[in-house]
Design goal:
Number of strands: 0
Helix content: over 70%
Oligomer: single chain
Structural class: mainly alpha
Distance between the termini: 32 Å
Length: about 210
Amino acid sequence: MDGIVDLPRAMALAWPAWLASWGRAVSSATLEPVLAALMAAAQRGDRAAYGQLLRDCAPWIMAVARRQGVSAGQLEDVVQETLLTVHRVRHSWDPARPFLPWLSAIAARRAIDLLRRHGRQGAREVHEPVLYEAAADEAEAASETLERADAASRLARAVAGLPEGQREAVRLLVMADRSLKEAAAESGRSEGALKVNLHRAIRSLRERMLGSDG
């Protein structure tokens, strides 16, 4: 996926998304399916999905950095470093695993690195990219169980409300993790039509899922 998107430009475009989301709490259970779908599409080469992913990750990265003790004036540095790391190790994310714990571990490490450069010690570290996916926040696990169930229910309703072609694209390319070639063979639709339907579905789901928390 090298060259899939102009990373500096995508990062610059993330700043307005931060400002829009600064005072708006979005639960991880609501955000997870949206970002996971964007990342899955990005791994298949969808440039628009990858750019949107980087923009939508910014507020979450800021929240992680603030919990690590990063000051407001240094948040931009943590987000830049985190997005660059995501770009470098994006291949290590497994679509079968949650996206936000993977992202949170990267953001926490970048925050710790910044604090250490400024003479402060972080509480814990994740040393290898391969361990990022195992860094779930255990303290929030219990409280998020009900949130995940509620979000799954809302996601199912949102998907059910999509047009048939978009539902099929989500089912095959995201839920069943089919390749474009496999999905085209199974559905009888062209790869181009599936990509268009998936892009429209993700945009619609993003508006419905995130908009419901606004």
